[in-house]
Amino acid sequence: MNKSELVDQISEKSDLTKKDSEKALNAFIEAVTEAVAKDDKVQLIGFGTFERRRREERAGRDPRTGEPITIPASNSPAFKAGKAFKDAVNQK
Q1: Is residue 76 helix, strand or coil?
Q2: What does the alpha-carbon distance between residue 15 and residue 21 come to, in Å, rounded to a whole number?
Q3: Predicted structure pTM score
Q4: Residue 80 pLDDT
Q5: Which of 12, 15, 51, 75 shows the smallest number of beta carbons within 10 Å?
Q6: What are the pLDDT digits (tens) for 9-37?
Q7: 77: part of which helix (H) or strand (E)?
Q8: Could you give the angle at the alpha carbon of 76 between the alpha carbons of 31 and 32, nearest 5°?
Q9: 3-class DSSP state for residue 14?
Q10: What is the DSSP code string of 26-75?
Q11: Chain-centroid distance, C-alpha 69
């Protein structure tokens, strides 16, 4: 499912217009992005948690030459699925 298909689904399930659904989805994405960038967690009970995780500096190898290199520390966005979401996905 891509973004336009998701907007269609939101529109059908919420009785909003496609334009309003797209605005709501964009606002959600922007709010989550800003919060995680500020190192805040976004917890949606039953769905999951969006958070920022720190990746420490580590050793690696250049795949072309095989020489050792240092991979710098960085931040990475992460999502941890909630119990209700996991249960819904694993339903048979």
Answers
A1: strand
A2: 9
A3: 0.81
A4: 97
A5: 15
A6: 999 999 999 999 999 999 999 999 999 99
A7: strand 74-81
A8: 10
A9: helix
A10: HHHHHHHHHHHHTT--EEETTTEEEEEEEE--EEEE-TTT--EEEEPPEE
A11: 29
